[in-house]
Design a protein that fits this description.
single chain, about 120 residues, alpha+beta, three-stranded antiparallel beta sheet, globular
Length: about 120
Amino acid sequence: IGIAYERWDAVESRVSVDALEDEILAAYAVEIGKLKASGGYVTADVIDIVPTTPDLDAMLGKFNKEHWHDEDEVRFIVKGHGLFHIAPADGDVVSIEMEAGDLIRVPRGTLQPLCFSVS
């Protein structure tokens, strides 16, 4: 369905469970640099979402609508896990469950009926 998957190693040995955005980006700088070069990506950021995130329902509500992106979407899980839902053009909606170390690249224009859920 056009989703690329990679496994990046040693998540727990690179960053602590309470690592900040700058620490996470620094720990994966080499991999992020290669990914940016190969995909033509310009930016990288960290989104910290956990079940105790303040106003989590409101935040997730922004993503819980069918949508697609004008550019590729890359998601990498540093800790915990996430569930991404994808609607391929020629098939049923699929759920991709990811855990720490998993990375997916979703091509631009891919329909996402629900971006993700947190548990």
